[in-house]
Amino acid sequence: MRKAVKVLSGLGCLVSVAAPVIAALAYPNVNWLFAFVLVGVLVLALNIVFAEDPTPQDLADEIERLLNGNYGGWDVDDFEHQRIRNPQLRGLWQKSMEIGGLPEEWVNRDEEVKNHLREIVRRLRELGADHGAKLDAS
Length: 138
Fold this sequence. Notes:
Blueprint: H1 2-26, H2 34-49, H3 56-68, H4 75-80, H5 87-100, H6 111-137
């Protein structure tokens, strides 16, 4: 079932990219509409390039909120789809996903898994304290 959903999702992405190109070729008199697609792609690309990594404290707070079940809206999706460039932060984020599985299920995990996630939160807070001390020294 998951594989079918993944294929359909990929197909949807393909259609959303290919449809404007096909429309531009099929209706050559309205090529100016294709500029909107380019602007959209440009905005997405700039968003990725200029996105900032979360601080270790922010990432620890997110994990703790998800672990306690105090989340809402898009919090789970935002956590799952982060693009973290810092290798230490990215490693701890990936480890939290590997240990805990899906973040929306962390609340129902056994205490052993929760303790592993709490350990990641502790390490992130230590990393944040070290990071803050380095900034103060500069």
